[in-house]
Specification:
Radius of gyration: 16 Å
CATH superfamily: Spore Coat Polysaccharide Biosynthesis Protein SpsA, Chain A
CATH topology: Spore Coat Polysaccharide Biosynthesis Protein SpsA, Chain A
Largest sheet: 8 strands, mixed
Shape: globular
CATH architecture: Alpha-Beta Complex
Order of helices and strands: EEEHEHEHEHEEEHHEH
Structural class: alpha/beta
Strand content: 15-25%
Number of domains: 1
CATH class: Alpha Beta
Number of strands: 10
Helix content: 25-40%
Length: 206
């Protein structure tokens, strides 16, 4: 049986629709890091992924849509019915986009993690075998406690119905919903923690 792991078309969507509260309410994806907007650094990291070619690429954003659109990519704002639902609203639009593009799965990733491992997409795809609907990187903790990285999940498009149902039931936590999918864990050692670090505060951009 073929699977996303070996034949499926993949989409990637950068989630840049947050409120940036710890950045003083600024649009985090457009803040400069090493001389370029964070969203551009993340896009470059996506395009540099090992052994993966994405069939579709888009940005999830809720502010400065015209600025994001200058990247020449589709810009996906949250649906009006889901404004205020947090990052799950962005995941929903990412799944809808991937489905419309004829892709079997979509890799969602945050706009504030520009150092993600270059083998991440390849390893997530390899983990998404027959019967699996989600693959998520997991950092092995120093004390043995695993730290899931739900903002970097690879999801099959057939999870859209489950996400709609979860939103209707009031779910707002990404990991809360992902656990319902029994995701495949893709382990990384503790030394990989800096690669998954989010740039949440102004001092992180220096």
């Amino acid at each position: 049986m073929s699977s996303v792991a070996d034949t499926g078309r993949l989409a990637a969507v950068v989630l840049a629709g947050g409120e940036g509260r710890r950045m003083g309410g600024q649009d985090k994806g457009l803040l400069l890091w090493q001389g370029q907007p964070l969203v551009d650094a993340v896009l470059a990291r996506i395009r540099a992924q090992e052994a993966i070619r994405f069939s579709a690429l888009a940005l999830s954003a809720n502010r400065h849509l015209d600025v994001y659109a200058t990247r020449g990519l589709p810009v996906l704002p949250d649906a009006p019915a889901h404004v205020g639902c947090g990052p799950l609203a962005g995941l929903r639009e990412a799944l809808r986009f991937a489905q419309a593009q004829g892709c079997e799965a979509v890799w969602v990733l945050p706009c504030d993690a520009p150092r993600m491992p270059l083998d991440l997409a390849r390893r997530l795809r390899a983990a998404l075998g027959p019967g699996a609907s989600a693959a998520v990187p997991v950092l092995e903790g120093e004390a043995g406690e695993p730290r899931w990285q739900p903002a970097h999940a690879l999801l099959t498009v057939d999870t859209l119905a489950a996400l709609d149902a979860a939103l209707a039931q009031g779910e707002r936590r990404v990991m809360g919903w992902l656990r319902s999918l029994d995701p495949v864990a893709v382990p990384y050692p503790p030394t990989a923690a800096p690669a998954f670090a989010n740039l949440n505060r102004p001092e992180d951009l220096i």
